[in-house]
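Notebook entry, structure prediction.
Reason for the run: the old model in the group folder had no record of what sequence produced it. Starting over properly, with the input documented here first.
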Amino acid sequence: MKKMLMVVMACYGLTARAQVHESRNFLYLNSDSVIYAKRITLRPDFAGFWQLRADSRRVAPEQVKFFSNENGFFANTRRVTFGYTTEFAERIVEGKINIYQEIPYDQFLYDRYYRYGDGPGPVVNFRMFYNKGFENLKKLNYRNLKTDMIDNPESMDMLKSYKKSINTSRMLYTAAGASFVAGIISFLAQGNEVEKPSGGGFGHGMNIKGPNITTSLVFWGLAAGFGVGGFAVQRSGSRHLENAIDVYNR
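New structure, fully documented this time:
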């Protein structure tokens, strides 16, 4: 009897989640309950504390898992960010796997100037997350995605290409940092060279030469080259990841 009751409750929970009407403005709470409203805003109160307003009702942001209004669909990143501070990420890709880009609170104060798609797509970074349906957010990285995409071989191949690109870009960035430091060391090691001829008194014929920075310039040129190469490979890796998600969401 207990097992039957647990099955019924689980089925009810899944049904309740499936019945969320995303065409309406709503707050999806951590308790999996949903509050619908005509107008939902995120604004600071007179004391400076941020709060969500669903019509006349006030809700603390930390109690909200997702909310949707005329500006978009947003997820609370509290559980996946350092310090467990409440911030929100906007859903920029919707599908079997949803992608979110974290944005600062300040953009809710005005007509938000941030819009994914206004310019070149952002490089994958620590401010991007994903989930399936209304599940908890996860950080957008290879380790997490390889588990959630295991059922799609084509996406997994693209994900492996993404991993290779990221490893290569990290090596290039490391080489860039090492070359830059080597340039600094070379510059400091040369210093000001003072040549004193054997004849004459103090200061007679003294020749002060500035440091020869040719070697340093070579190192710094390499650093710039490695840095640009790392960024280019990183951008290419982001394309592999984007393609993997697109294929998975077909």
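Summary: Residues 120 and 235 are 11 Å apart (CA to CA).
The old model has been moved to the deprecated folder.
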